[in-house]
Amino acid sequence: MDTIASNEFKILFTGPMGAGKTTAISAISDQAAVSTDVINTDLDQCEKELTTAALDYGQIALPDGSCVRLYGTPGQERFRFMWPILMKNAAGVIVLLNGEHQELEQHLEHFVQAFGEGRTLPMVVGVGRLPEDDHSRLERLAMKLEQRGIALPIFDADVRKHDDVLLLVDALLCLIEANDTGRMEA
Amino acid sequence: MTNRRLAFVGLGADTTSACLSMLKIMDGRSSVGWTQSEPDDADVLFVAHDGGANRKHWENGDKPCVVVYHNTEARPAARYTLPHPFRVMQLIGVLEDISSALGDTASATRAKAPADKPQDETFGHSLKNLLEAPANDDSLYRSRGAQGHLYVAPASGCYYIDPGLHQQLRSKDLSLSALEEVNDPISNQLARRPIFELAWFTAQHAHEALAPWLAPAGQFKLKRWPNFGTVRSDRVYLSLCALLTRQACGREQLLEHAQCNAGQLDRFLSACSMSNLLISDSNAPAPAPQVTNVNENGRFGSLIRGLRSRLGLSS
């Protein structure tokens, strides 16, 4: 992996269209996320009018002058070429999914695999809009990953709630710390 | 004394030998005497997890089957399981469960908890048994307490609880009876909640020390994370989960890593185990890698501390 500036820290938000990446970034960014929106041409997947083309961007300035950069990937498959570009030098990735989407399981598989299954980058999964009457849906997702030997944090998370976004970020930071510990021992 | 027969199907010689040695240790300590027999004559079968069609054949029969699996594998979906290698207490535990199911009313061994153990432990034990049973159990189970009832529906992965009782469950240990199968209709007034949450809070509040079925000197690893979106927690638990998905650890290593107290760690491990999220190896731990506590400087140490401070995340 390429080196990263010692005073920069990059967190990636990814997931399909309409999962809440822009909302999540805006929830913790110093300013509202800067978005590169285009007209949504894939209304079958998501009914919103605009969607991210290149990236969303937010940042958090730290008191010591360093900076945490928050990037959101475009959700549409046609902009997939942006993913590895944005992934470069990232410290971790947060996958956001729409729990009421019919292709939820496929989305999970797709994005977890595309971003390294938590093996190359620490990864946390947040699932929003889960049906109130189906409490086993999240567990089924976790077990699906477990069957492939993947143990990722996977939480129900409403990214419109600040605390839910913070939970995802905090879990990611704990994973980064645990990985860091491993590197120090190696 | 009741006499029962058990047989081994498809197990390696070392497993069979270990089991027979332990039965000798148990001899005289239990009101049930266990002897080895042929599978057709046995009351209980110990079958290998990787036994294929042979395992299926016996599991589909009417005899209780203990599926023996290697402790590096995920626990199989079977009512009775035993990780190999195992300790005598684990063997006693599974045989006790089977004795109870077979109706051996006086099956208490010396190792079993005293008869006057608190009611909540009985509830916890019955819940644990239910969670370890096959997932296709579409029965409904009820537990009663002074504050109200709750119902558990294992097949749908949920439980039903009075909202007031739910608030109490989240914050303290409740005195509840053991779960019993019922045919009651479910009231619309009851809240439907994920069963994982019930297991988590029950173990969290019931165990001051490590759950009795976990070995204090064992090694632990997580199969899956708890859903902290449902059971909110603090940083310590997130940190423990992060390390336990990376490597198997003993309690001392975990205490060092998360800088928490032993009670907090034990409640966490008990809750993970009750929720079927934990792999535990009860054997003496092999030399494990050193674990550095998270407050020491890693690659991103100061950036992470700065970010947490900036976001108002508790330390």
TrEMBL record, chain A:
<dbReference type="InterPro" id="IPR052705">
    <property type="entry name" value="Gliding_Motility_GTPase"/>
</dbReference>
<dbReference type="InterPro" id="IPR027417">
    <property type="entry name" value="P-loop_NTPase"/>
</dbReference>
<protein>
    <submittedName>
        <fullName>Small GTP-binding protein</fullName>
    </submittedName>
</protein>
